[in-house]
Design brief:
- This protein has a single domain, classed as Spore Coat Polysaccharide Biosynthesis Protein SpsA, Chain A, CATH 3.90.550.
- The radius of gyration is 18 Å and the shape is globular.
- It is an alpha/beta fold.
- It is 39% helix and 21% strand.
- It has a 7-stranded mixed sheet with strand order 3-2-1-4-9-6-13, sandwiched between helices.
- Helix 1 packs across helix 10 and helix 6 packs across helix 7.
- The two termini are 22 Å apart.
- The protein has 10 helices and 15 strands.
């Protein structure tokens, strides 16, 4: 699994521990200028021999180049059979068994697989995010109201090219046509207002500095960053993450359904991690 992270201290260790429990053998992580506890978390996992860390000092969110570098390293340096190019707020949940078993069930001819995502909106409160984010959105959308684009995983390939956003991959210049996998992605992009504001502040400014990308690439990040500059980002956050009264209405309408899978899994996994520390 590859990860590109920046200031992800609230979710990074849970992400690593969860995917390790689901069969990921090794992680390649690019840390892009983190100033919180992210480097310390990565150092602990690196000392356990489970994570390779790349420190990226550029500040222009060249995700395509950085993730492609990691994906190719997974094939050339680690002999990966399958590579998941992940984000820290995404948890790849196999329908049954492990991720290895899910990938093994795919046809031998499949070079890539597509995995749908579903959002878990934030609810304010104390405690770890997995205790609070237990409501799944049955009509998951991106922050601008558009479709929530799925992600892809691919067979290890020294020439693979991962497109910006990790939604598509290319092999020798041609986009691979993915097949469905018995996996879903539980997506937790908003875990608190400070986390969301910081994410848009850093990511949107980095996109603005990247002159190699078309303005249409990263449009959601760019639009949200503009709202931050205009002072309206909090309204957007509140729209995506309903307060108590709106939450009750969305539960009653079926828009939100209670889903405690991740809560149950991480409660046990993180307790084990704490005991092993």
């Amino acid at each position: 699994m590859t990860l590109l992270v920046r200031d992800e201290e609230d979710i990074l260790e849970a992400n690593l521990a969860f995917h390790r429990s689901r069969g990921v053998d090794h992680f390649i992580v690019t840390d892009n200028l983190s100033t919180d506890r992210t480097p310390a978390i990565l150092a602990r996992w690196r000392d356990r021999g489970l994570v390779t860390v790349i420190e990226e000092r550029q500040d222009d969110y060249a995700q395509h180049a950085w993730v492609t570098r990691m994906a190719r390293m997974a094939a050339t340096d680690y002999g990966a059979d399958w590579v998941i190019n992940n984000d820290a707020d995404e948890f790849w949940w196999p329908a049954c068994g492990t991720l290895k078993e899910a990938f093994a069930s795919l046809p031998a001819s499949a070079q890539a697989t597509v995995v749908e995502r579903t959002n878990f909106p934030a609810l304010d409160g104390a405690g770890p995010f997995w205790d609070r984010l237990v409501w799944r959105d049955t009509q998951s959308r991106n922050p601008m109201g558009g479709p929530l684009i799925p992600k892809v995983a691919h067979r290890g390939d020294r020439s693979i090219e991962v497109e910006q956003g990790n939604h598509f991959v290319r092999q020798r210049g041609l986009r691979l046509v993915p097949v469905p996998a018995p996996i879903e992605i539980l997506h937790l992009p908003c875990r608190s207002w400070p986390q969301f504001e910081r994410k848009i502040q850093l990511g949107g400014a980095a996109y603005a500095r990247n002159t190699n990308l078309k303005p249409s690439i990263g449009k959601t990040w760019r639009d949200l960053h503009q709202r931050l500059l205009e002072g309206s980002l909090r309204r957007e956050y509140d729209r995506q993450n309903p307060v108590a009264m709106e939450h009750a209405a969305q539960v009653a309408s079926g828009r939100l359904v209670r889903d405690e899978r991740l809560r149950r899994a991480l409660s046990e996994i993180m307790q084990d991690e704490a005991g092993a520390a």
